[in-house]
Amino acid sequence: MVKTLVKASLILSLTFGLGQPIYAAEPIAKKQFGAMSKGSNQRARPFGGYAMGCLAGGAQLAETGPTWQAMRLSRNRNWGHPELVDFVQDLSKNAKKIGWNGIYVGDMSQPRGGPMLSGHRSHQVGLDADIWMLPPKSLKLSRNARENLSSISMRRAGGAFVNSSWTSEHHQVLRAAASDPRVARIFVFPGAKVQMCKDEKGDRAWLNKIRPWFGHHYHFHVRLACPKRARGCINQAPPPKGDGCADAQKWVDDILNPPAPKPRDPNAPKPKPRRELTVADLPTQCARVLRSR
Ligand SMILES: [Zn+2]
């Protein structure tokens, strides 16, 4: 009897590695969510914020439609809240009216949202979509072609201005996206915002939602607001009032004439390295989203 007890406690201490911090056992969120191949069998709901959340009941955007194609199918990121799937289809129809064949759709979310194994900090709740700047030549691309075709940059070398690939259709497609009441904001490189600020002669209200940001010259990034009555979905604070054109111009001016870097305060605390998100960091509903069939 005594012998058995000793044996059992020996096995226990070996198994649980004495002194191991508990959190070492917490599952890494991006591995769990990255492994999900289809949406959860739940009512559609985003949980949490754009960069810290997940998606229940995700819907898949059809890989090809009359006015769109989803790109890089191997990533399986053509998923989102049904409102995002509707929005993308509506935008593709508007693009057609404007004179494009439709749109190429880049990353949306994983089937159950959540953090991703590569790229993107946001796109976690099924309300973000990247739309390629490249106007589609064909909407009959094969799977393979969709892995290999690249979008095109709209940015002139140096980074401050649009290049000769930028057209009035780009302006109109972005305006159509920003004018949609479901849209909260759109990220695009500052040179494009400044160009649109110059070129817009009509109503400027939509420019409020166009937000200058790093990158975003091969695609623009559309972010929808939380759908109505989506409890547990966390909106971002709205952009400051006004068209935001002066801010974008300031950004461009700083690219052209970079301000002197501020000297580092030797007493300032070092920035903490970013820790991997675990499932426990996400809203509690997300563990259930993972477990759902
Ligand atoms: Zn994006």
Q: Describe it for me?
A:
Strands 8-11-9-10 form a 4-stranded mixed beta sheet. Strands 4-5-7 form a 3-stranded mixed beta sheet, covered by helices on one side. The radius of gyration is 23 Å and the shape is globular. By secondary structure, it is an alpha+beta fold. The model is unreliable at 1-22 (pLDDT under 50). It starts with a helix and ends with a helix. α3 packs antiparallel against α5 (168-178). The protein has 8 helices and 11 strands. The chain has a domain at 29-153 and 168-189 and 205-242 and 284-291: Muramoyl-pentapeptide Carboxypeptidase, domain 2, CATH 3.30.1380. 37% of the residues are buried. The protein binds zinc ion. Zinc ion binds at residues 120, 123, 128, 130, 221.
